[in-house]
Amino acid sequence: MKKILIAGLLGGLVIFAWGAVFHMVLPLGKAGMSRMPNEDDALEALRENVKGPGLYVFPWFEEADASKEREEEIRKKWEEKFRRGPSGLMVLLPRDQDPIRLIQLVTEFASNVVCALVAALLVGQAAKGGIGYLGSVLLCALLGFFASVSIDVSYWNWYGFPTDFAKAALIEQTVGWGLSGVAIAAVLRRSPARASAPAPAP
Fold first, then answer.
1. Phi first, then psi: what are they for 89, rounded to 5°?
2. Could you tell me if 105 and 175 are in contact, meaning their C-beta atoms sit under 8 angstroms apart?
3. Which among 42, 47, 173, 192 is most buried, taking Cβ atoms within 10 Å?
4. Cα–Cα distance between 166 and 31 in angstroms, integer?
């Protein structure tokens, strides 16, 4: 268990550092993102019309407790607005806060360590079956691939996230957890069995 904890902490540190490099150094960190045209005017309009932070969906489908005919009318109007566009999601953060806060870094690191602990537990179990060092690294990389396909493809499919964003996320998670797996597997690598001592002469 001590090795699992060390592997989880080290693996979490690696994935945390990889995330910093990916988003602050590599161009893939901004893949699929674009600057809003007329940003100043758009921000002023948001300040005037949207007062609180939250996840906003537009156009909003208002489910009403009404007759079947009324519900059909509401749905048709919503579909017309959707087709006319634009449609999407908008995340608004609270005002008067710094772009990067200490609590965000602590939360990110803690979540990385938790996930790395799960990966270390799985690698530890797989090692008992003789998976080996490279197999352990591949297992961690596949965990990152699984997470990205499960989440980011859904965001791309249902919410219209840009294809480049989804591709970059897939690379970030797969490569990042592969690198984390290098550290995790190194800590959990089984020591070679000691040669048996010769039996004493009768």
1. -120, 150
2. no
3. 173
4. 9
In three-state secondary structure terms, 88 is strand
Q: Where do the domains of the chain lie?
A: 2-33+98-188
Written as six digits, the tokens of 99 are: 């772009």
CA distance 140 to 22: 18
* Per-residue DSSP letter, 55: E
Burial class (CB in 10 A: 0-12, 13-18, 19+), 137: buried
Determine phi and psi for 54, rounding to 5 degrees: 160, 180
Peptide bond between residue 86 and the one before it cis (omega within 30 degrees of 0): yes
4, 120 Cβ separation under 8 angstroms: yes
Q: How far apart are CA 4 and CA 94, in angstroms?
A: 38
Rg (CA), the chain: 25
- Annotate 7-37 with DSSP letters as a single string: HHHHHHHHHHHHHHHHHHTSGGGGTT--PPT
Residue-level pLDDT, tens digit, the chain, 202 residues? 899 999 999 999 999 999 999 999 999 999 999 999 999 999 999 999 998 899 999 999 887 666 677 888 888 999 999 999 999 999 999 888 888 999 999 999 999 999 999 999 999 999 999 999 999 999 999 999 999 999 999 999 999 999 999 999 999 999 999 999 999 999 998 644 433 444 445 4
Residue 65: the pLDDT is 67
